[in-house]
Write a structure and sequence with these properties.
Elements lengths: L6 H18 L3 H7 L4 H9 L18 H13 L4 H7 L2 H4 L1 H6 L18 H15 L5 E4 L15 E5 L2 E12 L6 E7 L8 E7 L5 E6 L10 E12 L3 E2 L5 H37 L1 E2 L2 E2 L4 H29 L5 H25 L10 H9 L9 H11 L3
Parallel strand pairs: 1-4
Antiparallel strand pairs: 2-3, 3-7, 4-5, 5-8, 6-7, 9-10
Helix pairs in contact: 1-4, 4-9, 9-10, 9-11, 9-12, 10-11, 11-12, 11-13
The structure holds flavin-adenine dinucleotide.
Amino acid sequence: MSIVDTPERRQLRELTRAFVTREVLPHLDEWERAGEVPRGLHATAAKLGLLGIGFPESVGGSGGDLLDSILVTEELIRSGGSSGLVAALFTHGIALPHMVAASGARTGGSLGGRLGAASTAGDDDLIERYVRPTLAGTMIGALAITEPDGGSDVAGIRTTARRDGDHYVVNGSKTYITSGHRADFVTTAVCTDFPGSGQLSLLVIDKGSTGFTVGRRLEKLGWHCSDTAELSFVDVRVPVGNRIGAENTGFLAIMQHFAAERLSLATQAYATAQRCVELAVRWCRDRETFGRPLASRQLVRHRLAEMHTRAEAARSYVHAVAVRVAAGEPVVTEVAMAKNVAVAACDHVVDQALQLHGGFGYLRDAEVERHYRDARILGIGGGTTEIMNEIIAKGMGL
Ligand SMILES: Cc1cc2nc3c(=O)[nH]c(=O)nc-3n(C[C@H](O)[C@H](O)[C@H](O)COP(=O)(O)OP(=O)(O)OC[C@H]3O[C@@H](n4cnc5c(N)ncnc54)[C@H](O)[C@@H]3O)c2cc1C
């Protein structure tokens, strides 16, 4: 079953391509230098209905499911955008789903339903205060799980939230947080028992809360248009109403929504590979060495053929797994395999595509140079390649 074969999805692809051509390509280099994308881009994407894809209309989304989200992500990159752009503009894809699920609505890609026994007035309130404005492009959200002491061991989180009347008092720090500088609120994983106990909850923490500091802007190898922050919490008082779902359901919520994040990263990987194949083919047709186009040489043609094969195989597998996730199948192992397969294909293709560009491939002027740098995070974020292998090994009964 192909996920692109409907007239609606072809329209969505065209809409995304037009958005990138008109609103992104003329400015992307400037945003890479500035270290962030402008707020106005969120509003523009929201007006077109792109920000809300995969979120139900009942919470301010545009409808559609995980497969539509994947299609938008794929097209954002294939039409000349980048995985850094996806990270910056679609951070809400990881910041909001827990709130939406807790309210009883369902986003594409969650492997479970509502958390806790029932949605509360507080959960509905979070939809109004954070989800709707974010999907309308007037607020920006971030998700903070990773801490300086470690990101792979989610249960080992040490940021604490101690209950004090109608508030939690939060202490700790987070790092590598995408959109952390621009975010108006941060969906934050906290430990609601002793540090490292694994008893996690998710709190929505407003920027500007006393004791909440956004630290230095982290400089990175790639994803330059995506701002990345360190966050510090010192005795930050957060209303109990800002807790998502029931207390101590945070770990389950994080795990359930990892599926969509990992499939998004897998999509970014195969789409980056596809884009780099296109760039390399174009270059090899035009570039002449020793009196002939590069593409006329069998060695080069076979190299391009192999790159294309790897990108297409990854795409097919990611789509097949996404269809199963969208159908509600518990395919945690397959999601991990999809991420690793797509990342491996991408790593190979970006390296080969840059090599085929020769010296030009190493220059900032070359689009392939940006993809080469941007691609390196895809096997680290959302669970590393090694952590995916742990999941796969468990799935094998090892
Ligand atoms: C640009 C960028 C954006 C990010 N955005 C966000 C964000 O928005 N929100 C957020 O919460 N986090 C974010 N992260 C953090 C990211 O999810 C973590 O970096 C990642 O999960 C790995 O955690 P770590 O860096 O602490 O590495 P560690 O957990 O310290 O791991 C270090 C190395 O050891 C390996 N390893 C760890 N445990 C094992 C094991 N049991 N067996 C074998 N190998 C193991 C890992 O695979 C890795 O290679 C971002 C990171 C970057 C760089």
